[in-house]
Amino acid sequence: MCSTSSLTWWLPAVGDTSNDLFRMLADPTRRRILDLLTERGPLTVGQLAAHFPDLVSSGISKHLMGLRAEGFVSSTRQGRQQMYRIEADAMSNAMARSLARYEPYWSDALQRLRDLAEGHRHCAVVELSFRVTADVAVVWSYFTEAEKLREWHGHAQLFEAWPGGRVLFRHSGWPAVEGTVAEIETHRLIRWTIPSDGSEILELFEPCQGGTSVSIEQHGIRPAWPPDGLAGRMRGWDEAVADLVLILDHGVHAARHMADRVDPGMSTLDVSAGIQIEAVVPKGPADIAGLHPGDVIVKVSTTPVYRRSDLTILWRSFSPGTKVAVQYVRDRQILTTELSFGRQS
């Protein structure tokens, strides 16, 4: 004769259904029944009872009656047997109702997390470091003194070396970059912000054997530029640093980064077929040349092009006012037009 464990009959409380699921799951036998029905699919009372050696079949039936009463379990007849199966939708709805009363405790935190994630979704970080043979005081001067900044960048720059000081960088053909000094420690640290894109630049200087180590980080970039804005920002830093290293280590002022830039008056995307025009500036060089969004550029002058990086290099070889043949695909035809470059602004 099988022994029986104590069985507490479960009845839902009148007028309070929000906690039905919790009361049901409070009993380990009912939890085990639901686990078995979830893992093994439809089962009979006898098949369920085989997993409870200390409980008679009638006890399993009573638990199933309670589960059926709440809609968490259903049954169908197959021959002379009742097959029990779990009702996933009813369980899910009951869980949602039961947890709804606790939602205020976590909803605010989740919203704050969503806001934080959205705020940083388009943020990016640029990081680079380099070493030069110059003394830290000399390197520092190229970041903070007007004469040295002009030598490095080729145009008059403004850097007020105190907290709250103004920063203004100008390059030929490029939009001016304006910022504010947030923190500065002579020969050690400069931290300044750019309100236009919400980013912060940290420049660290450290004397080392044989010269100076410099690290530059730009955090929180939210470019109001085309999709290639971050790549362009990284390339700009690389070029500027290369020019500075030439000055400090080789005594040569090449002025590569400050060279005049041409403006084709269009933005492009890398696609499977090559370089597709994304947009053209009204009355800009590309618009005047008759280029349209969706056109695929295949050749500039005599040079085949496949990726936007190819165009970036080619644009640098032209001067403002230069006219160049551009071959492109539209409506299954290869067409050619003449593009007259403007000055980047």
Explain what you see.
This protein has 345 residues and is α+β, with helices and mostly antiparallel strands. It has 3 domains: 20-100, Winged helix-like DNA-binding domain superfamily/Winged helix DNA-binding domain (Arc Repressor Mutant, subunit A, Orthogonal Bundle); 126-250, START domain (Alpha-D-Glucose-1,6-Bisphosphate, Chain A, domain 4, 2-Layer Sandwich), CATH 3.30.530; 262-343, Pdz3 Domain. Helices cover 35% and strands 29% of the residues. The protein is elongated and about 95 Å long.
CATH architecture classification of the largest domain: 2-Layer Sandwich
Give the number of domains. 3
> Numbering strands along the chain, what is their spatial order in the largest sheet?
3-9-8-7-6-5-4
Number of distinct beta strands = 17
Q: How many DSSP H or I helices?
A: 11
Q: Calculate Rg over CA atoms.
A: 35 Å
Q: How far from one another are the termini?
A: 94 Å
Summarize the biggest pleated sheet: 7 strands, antiparallel
Overall pLDDT confidence: 80
The percent range for helix content is: 25-40%
β-sheet strand percentage: 25-35%
SSE pattern, N- to C-terminal: HHHHEEHHEHHEEEEEEHEEEHEEHEEE
List unreliable stretches of 5+ residues. 1-18, 223-228
CATH class membership of the largest domain: Alpha Beta
Which class best fits the helix and strand makeup? alpha+beta
Dominant shape: elongated
CATH fold node name of the largest domain: Alpha-D-Glucose-1,6-Bisphosphate, Chain A, domain 4
For the record, what is the CATH homologous superfamily label of the largest domain? START domain
